[in-house]
Amino acid sequence: DAVLDLSGIEKTYNRGLPSEVGVLRGLDLRVAKGEVVALVAPSGAGKSTLLHIAGLLDTADAGTVAIAGRAMTGLSDRARTEARRREVGFVYQFHHLLPEFTAAENVILPQLANGTARREAEAKAMALLDLVGVAPRAGHRPAALSGGEQQRVAFCRALANRPKLLLADEPTGNLDPETSDRVFATLLKLVRDTGLSALIATHNLDLARRMDRVVRLDAGRII
Ligand code: ADP
Ligand code: ADP
After folding, report:
1. Whole-angstrom Cα distance, residue 83 to residue 6?
2. Ligand 1 atom 26: the closest Cα is on which residue?
């Protein structure tokens, strides 16, 4: 019962040009239900490419992608976008919160976009902000929050629509080491509390070791 199942994934950029670069070369990766997997890769190895394909933001040249048992290969752009909104949450190194909205509103808005009623969306946002200890700051705009608080709000936004899979790219990479440590612990707790499955890219081996399994991306495959 894999939540993410990547099989035989191949991706080449600029095919046929002098600048052609084969990034993923028959990559296989499975993330089980409730499993938290660390993805470790040197810069340029194709980590972002892999996360974008797993998160239905980009398509592979070959291979299959399944999320929660559903084949995502060969979908129309529209069906893929719908599946992404429903099934996947993303967290990046920078929070990308909307600056003109409060922390709470940043967690509410994606729910409204998905058709959740306002009252329910507000309650969900407050429950999530409470889980990560930012509820007292819910009425502040991102600029008034610390880096760690901003990133915690971004975690809540990613989980607001109850995705099955969380994909994170250096989720605490822009924080100082001590804050990074604490905020990362919060992310892990949130993932555990909500029963999510996660694939989390990081350069930090100490953080990687706190996850269920560490995989390495090398020469276009998982080793
Ligand atoms: P990472 O996230 O591990 O640093 P990326 O997935 O961003 O790696 O990139 C892997 C390789 O693919 C790099 O050599 C990069 O230059 C190349 N690449 C990434 N995106 C594109 C693109 N849109 N067009 C051409 N080459 C790309
Ligand atoms: P409860 O079911 O009592 O609300 P949970 O521990 O299941 O307690 O959830 C705590 C909070 O996290 C609740 O607000 C819940 O809606 C939210 N939550 C639970 N699962 C998910 C999920 N997969 N994605 C996002 N939020 C979730």
Report:
1. 16
2. 13
Closest of 42, 168, 36 to residue 96, by C-alpha: 168
pLDDT tens digit string along 19-69?
A: 999 999 999 999 999 999 999 998 899 999 999 999 999 999 999 999 999
- Confidence category of residue 74, pLDDT binned at 50, 70, 90: confident
What integer best gives the mean pLDDT of the chain? 95
- Residue 1 confidence (pLDDT): 84
105 CB contacts (<8 Å, ≥6 apart)?
Answer: 98
CA gap 79, 72 in Å, rounded? 9
Q: H/E element holding 53?
A: helix 47-54
d(CA 139, CA 133) in angstroms, rounded, equals 14
Question: Half-sphere exposure of residue 196, counting CA atoms within 13 Å on the CB side?
Answer: 30
The number of the ligand 1 atom at minimal distance from the alpha carbon of 50 is: 6
Q: What angle do CA 193, 197, 202 make, to 5 degrees?
A: 100
As given in the structure block, the two tokens for residue 212 are: 């269920």
Atom number of ligand 2 nearest to Cα 123: 14
Q: Give ipTM to 2 decimals.
A: 0.67
